Structures are given as C-alpha cells and as structure tokens.
Amino acid sequence: MGVLEIERGDGIMVLRMNRPERLNALNTELRAALIEAWTEFNASPDFEVAIFTGTGRGFCAGEDMKESVERGAPGSSPAVRREDDLYRTGRVNKPVIAAINGLAMGGGFQLVEQADLRVAVPGILFESSEAKRWLLGGYDHGLKGGLPHAIATELAFAFRLTSERLHELGFINRLAEPDQLLPTAREMAAHLLTLPPACRVNTLTMMRAMRATVPDRLERLAARLKEHGAKSDLMESRKAFSEKRPPVFKGWDNPGDRNRTPRLEDVQ
User: Fold this and answer.
1) 36 pLDDT exceeds 90?
2) Is pLDDT of 160 > 90?
3) Residues 28 and 145 in one domain
4) Other Cβ atoms within 10 Å of 61 Cβ, number
C-alpha cells in the first residue's frame, strides 16, 4: 500500500492518508501524492465531492519532524511546492468533507480547516502548532473558523481543543463514532450530489467567498513578526521534538530585540 489510498465511485473520491506509523505526518512522498490526487479530483468530470481522511490513530500530525531534522531545514521539502497543491491553496473547485479519524496537529489542523464540511470522532485532539515550531503562533485560524477571540487566542498559543469542544463552537459539523465516521461523511456527500449541479457549484463559490480573511495591514505585521526572533529556535524545536527532550530556546540573537517588537502602528 502507498502513503495515500484512493477510492473512486458514485461521484465521490475518498482520499485516505496512509502513514499510520507516523500519524500520517506530511513527508515529501505524502505531500506529492496529495498534490497529484487533488489535481485529478479537480479535473475529473467523474467526481463531484471528496472525502478526506486518514488511517490509524491520527488524521494528520502535520509536518514530518524527522524528515525536517534530516534535511536540516524547517517546513516542507523544496521538492514539493505549495503553489502546486490545489487543496492547500484553496483552488479545489468542488466540495471537500474532512472525515477526521484521529488527532489533527499543525499542518494536519490546517488540512481540516481547509475543508468545507467536517465530521470528527469524539475525544480526539486538535492543535494549531505554529507557536511551537515558528516565531509566530497561528493567528489566523480562529478568524477563518469564525471563532470567538478568546478561542482564537487558545488556538494561536497552541492549546489543544477536543472534537467535542470544537463541535460546540461550530467548527465541526458532526460527531460520529469511529465505525460511523465514513458512513456519515458519505451521507453528507450523497446529499450534496442530490443538488442541482449549478447550485452546488455556485453555493460553494459563495460560501467560500464569505470566509473571513486577515486584513492586509495585519498580514504585513505578521510578516514582520515572523522575522522577529532567533531563527535557530525553529530547528531547535524540531530537534527537541525528534529527540524527545525539552527544547532549549534562545529567543533573540540580540536580547535587546525583545523590546523592539514590531507593532501595528509601525505598519502602513
């Protein structure tokens, strides 16, 4: 079996990440397979709805830290370009249902977030992990998810939230026991397929257009903050995770930089 299993039939494509021994962490091979699969789904006239899920205890643990440490650089490999991934860049033009079978962390949380509809198993954990791995926490997730500011702040600081809590907050559409997860997702997909094709396309376009986005000025502030701090901490975070030890962070190359944090009033 490959790192991505695909089922095709009845107008539905099921994409199942299959690295259970690594909690479906996104290594170069899996990222490349997903790019190919989403490209096929988007272009094919035979499929109108996708169901996105995983095998084992995890939906997706995000970045493959082991691969990053071996490569000596954070993030995804240059061998796979983000701009080629139609799903991650929001260019899949058909509905996607995330069937979340297990924990979703970091990049895995972002894969959930990108979906149009979400079904999850009770008791699993979600985490926006940027605060642990980069120099700025996941500031945009709560906004894009339409969540209250206090909850958005929890996400930004990498607190973990359960599927039950996210369901209560409206981020998850349905909760389903493990043996009912795929059947529930398929029921939702079947409903979408009963709609007039033009209505399904037009409604999806409208609902995505209504998603909140971060204003340009705040994005410019975020760009500055992403550079504010010791870049060595990025790899220290990943090495510590891989070596199963507490990280030893530097913070700033120049300690005085702590008091020179960029502010919104500094950004035009």
Assistant:
1) yes
2) yes
3) yes
4) 25
Q: pLDDT digit string (tens) for 4-18?
A: 999 999 999 999 999
Determine contact, residues 180/151, Cβ cutoff 8 Å.
no
What's the CA dihedral at 105, 107, 110, 114 to 10 degrees?
A: -130
Rounded CA-CA distance 23/209 in Å is: 32
Q: 202 and 134, same structural domain?
A: yes
Same domain, 204 and 220: no
Neighbours of 207 (CB within 10 A): 11
Are residues 198 and 230 both part of a single domain? no
- Find the CATH number of the domain harbouring 189: 3.90.226.10
Place of tokens 């997903």: 34
User: Environment class of residue 262 by beta-carbon count within 10 Å: exposed (0-12), middle (13-18) or buried (19+)?
Assistant: middle
220 and 172 inside one domain: no
Q: What is the mean pLDDT of residues 188-198?
A: 98
Low-confidence winner among 42-56, 79-93, 99-113 (lowest mean pLDDT): 79-93
Range of the domain at 145: 4-209
Same domain as 231, residue 203: no
- 115 & 180 share domain: yes
Q: Domain count for the chain, please give it.
A: 2
Is 17 strand, coil or helix?
Answer: strand
Chain segment 87-134, per-residue pLDDT in tens: 999 999 999 999 999 999 999 999 999 999 999 999 999 999 999 999
18 in Cβ contact with 55 (< 8 Å): yes
At 223, the amino acid letter reads A
